[in-house]
Specification:
A: about 240 residues, B: mainly alpha
């Protein structure tokens, strides 16, 4: 009785808070402050056709570096807690068997999904999406592969090398920005301009940084999935 | 009925479906049904992000929220079930 009363009280206070928020909300008809600056000067200052990418990789690239670090920490913590012993490695996952349809479809779809993920992060500065989205799409291709064949093995060494190399390269490109651009992680290259607006080799170092971020995120998420897959092993 | 009104009606419908799925996820006794419902909440959320012209967020939500996290929940559920059996 008291418990239900407390739940009702919490719900009522949430309703009160959100009603006040809703009451004081006025839709803005035009951009103000820093958003207006980004929208007006984004194309000339960064050269990326996708303004979201311009903000994420150039104006706010330090935040992106933090996000990459958080994801790396998450992957590291998960691999620490899901560590397998040597005997567990030889066990297999017992499952009811996957359907013929899923297996056949996965052969056709997995390359396409990988290709789409690569497309999303290479074109991050032109079309919606970018490194994080492309990496997540690549990892969902790995999900399909695992579902079609639960006992498949993913090459651990390749994943670790791809992840470490791309992580180091992102930092190196960021440091190169001090020498060639306007500062740490700055996307412009002095003396080269931004290239033709809307083409794939434009917007300075954004395509390279985002492709590396995509590889890193894809490798990390695949690694997490691989660990969870291995944790199902028994007998 | 202009375009803006149609968008609002679709957005409200998707929002109501999200609330409905969230309630299923909380109240259903079968955990596998609850996990699927939580994944569907993410799927509708990504549709809503797309309607609000945020395709970047929609992509992330669809791939991570309804794809990867659902699978990881199923792995964990499987592990718990086998350890308890």
């Amino acid at each position: 009785m008291l418990r239900n009363l407390l739940i009702a009280l919490v719900l009522a206070s949430f309703g009160f808070i959100f009603y006040n928020l809703y009451q004081s909300y006025e839709p803005q008809t035009e951009l103000t402050g820093i958003a207006a600056h980004f929208a007006e000067n984004g194309a000339s200052e960064v050269g990326a056709a996708n303004l979201v990418t311009a903000v994420v990789v150039s104006y706010r690239s330090f935040d992106t570096l933090g996000e990459i670090t958080i994801l790396f920490l998450t992957a590291a913590i998960i691999s620490f807690f899901l560590k397998l012993s040597k005997e567990d490695e030889e066990k297999v996952i017992i499952h009811r068997g996957t359907s013929e349809l899923l297996q056949t479809a996965s052969f056709l779809l997995i390359p396409l999904i990988f290709l789409f993920g690569v497309y999303v992060f290479i074109n991050g500065h032109l079309t919606p999406g970018g490194g994080f989205q492309g990496g997540a799409i690549i990892a969902s291709g790995v999900v399909l592969a695992i579902m079609a064949n639960p006992n498949m093995t993913i090459n651990h060494k390749v994943i670790i090398w791809v992840e470490s190399l791309s992580g180091v390269s992102v930092i190196l490109i960021g440091v190169l920005g001090i020498l060639l651009g306007g500062g740490f992680l700055d996307s412009s290259i002095k003396g080269l301009g931004f290239g033709e607006f809307g083409t794939i080799f434009s917007a300075g170092t954004i395509p390279f940084i985002y492709s590396l971020v995509g590889l890193k995120v894809g490798a990390e998420l695949s690694n997490i999935l691989n660990l969870y897959q291995k944790s199902q092993k028994e007998a | 009925m202009n375009n803006e009104m149609i968008y609002s009606v679709i957005a409200i419908g998707v929002g109501l479906l999200m609330v409905f799925m969230a309630i299923i996820a909380i109240l259903n006794k079968k955990l596998s049904v609850a996990i699927i419902a939580a994944g569907v909440v993410s799927l509708f959320a990504s549709v809503l992000f797309l309607l609000m012209s945020a395709p970047d967020v929609a992509m992330t939500e669809a791939a991570i929220g309804s794809g990867l996290s659902t699978l990881i929940f199923f792995y964990v559920l499987n592990k718990i079930k086998r350890q308890n059996a």
